[in-house]
Amino acid sequence: MNKNSGTAGNEDERGTERGVATKTRPKTKKPSQYRVLLLNDDYTPMEFVVGLLMGIFKKTQEEATQIMLDVHQSGIGICGIYTFEIAETKVAQVLDAAKRSDHPLKCTLEKA
Ligand code: TYC
Fold first, then answer.
1. Going by CA atoms, what residue is nearest to atom 4 of ligand 1?
2. Best exposed site among 21, 63, 90, 94 by fewest CB in 10 Å?
3. Is the Cβ–Cβ distance between 15 and 3 less than 8 Å?
4. DSSP output for the chain
5. Rounded Cα–Cα distance for residues 11 and 49 (Å)
6. Distance 14 CA to ligand 1 centre (A)
């Protein structure tokens, strides 16, 4: 340990600063966020969409019904905003559930 503790250890025996400045700024970049979007279609049952919004996106029945109706009326709606990995996983879960039930439901993500 340097006797001038509290310094970056870049001083010589006289306490003169030497060498390269080493003051660091920790990298604290926030991860990018992504919107998960649900698209309307004419065939997927309303109850199925509400079930997905509750099961995958952890919405209450009231929230899920409101989002589903927004999508039904406007064509598109936001299910939630997540980091890329989580958004990607949720999109895959929706598409997988829709495919397994033979519904044409589409879901995608976009950078927020
Ligand atoms: N439009 C569908 C119907 O009338 C319901 C629906 C809502 C489908 C939202 C997809 O993302 C959707 N049964």
1. 42
2. 21
3. no
4. --SSBTB-S-B-TT--B-S---------PPPPEEEEEEE--SSS-HHHHHHHHHHTT---HHHHHHHHHHHHHHSEEEEEEEEHHHHHHHHHHHHHHHHHTT---EEEEEE-
5. 65
6. 76
Ligand 1: nearest atom to the Cα of 38: 11
Indicate the residue type of 108. Answer: T
The answer on pLDDT for 4 being more than 80 is no
Q: State the distance between the two ends of the chain, measured CA to CA, in whole angstroms.
A: 47
- C-beta of residue 109 within 8 angstroms of C-beta of residue 34: yes
pLDDT in tens, 38-97: 999 999 999 999 999 999 999 999 999 999 999 999 999 999 999 999 999 999 999 999
Is residue 41 a contact partner of residue 94, using CB atoms and an 8 Å limit?
A: no
To test the ligand 1 pocket, which listed residue (71, 76, 91, 108) has its Cβ within 8 A of the most ligand atoms?
71
Output the pTM of the full model: 0.80
